Amino acid sequence: MSDLRYTPFYRALHRPNLFLGGERELVMSTGILCAGLVISSQNWPATIIGLSIWCLGIGIFRMLAKIDPYLVSVYLRHLKYESYYTPRSTPWRD
DSSP string covering the chain, please? Predict the structure, then answer.
């Protein structure tokens, strides 16, 4: 048993890619949409609405990232699946 080799798994190699505590794509796309809303309208009500959507979105995305940091990528992969797979060993088999 002492001859077993020990290989450490460094946390930085498999840590999820998060931004501001939420999934990177969701946080950045929400930020871009809110900034576009504020910049395009250029008035106080739109600024308040944009900032409130941003703050609410960040809170929701942080909660979702605590549950599953790869939630959106898993969901998008789920949408690409077919409903039925034929019984073949490889996709290239005739």
Answer: -TTPPP----HHHH---EETTEEHHHHHHHHHHHHHHHHHH-SHHHHHHHHHHHHHHHHHHHHHHHH-TTHHHHHHHHHHS-S-----SSTT--
